[in-house]
Design goal:
Blueprint (H helix, E strand, L loop, with lengths): L2 E3 L8 E7 L2 H16 L10 E9 L2 H19 L1 E13 L2 E12 L13 E12 L2 E9 L1
GO molecular function, one term: metal ion binding
InterPro entries: Archease, Archease_dom, Archease_dom_sf
GO biological process, one term: tRNA processing
Length: about 140
Amino acid sequence: MPYRFLETVATADIAFEAWGSTMEEMFVEAAEATLNVMVADVTTVARRETLTLVLENDAVDMLLFDFLGELVFIKDTHRLLLRVINIAIKDENGMLELAVTLAGEKIDPGRHPLQVDVKGVTLHLFEVVKTGGVWKTTVVLDI
């Protein structure tokens, strides 16, 4: 599991670090950590529906912020729990473009061991860094 929860960082919210050897891996792990805050066992989320998102930003941290925010928005508006199937990030003249295919299903409390509801992604302590060839993010989620 290339993410870990930071229990001493936020008392009323939930914080985690996620990492990967590429930006894409870090984005996938941050999405998995966000889902894992809401669902105890993310493997219970079946791939019944798919959708594609394309997001742009000139900063990698804000691109991740937008991506995680979209996952929370889709959960709230369509009641969909989603996992990443395919992801690519391109740098076009300083503008980063995220193209991601997601798959998941509607929230079913009978099948999904729900934990807490994520209301949003905060900018508190939010960062993305690359150190020693590893991309790492720190995220605090509002619950």
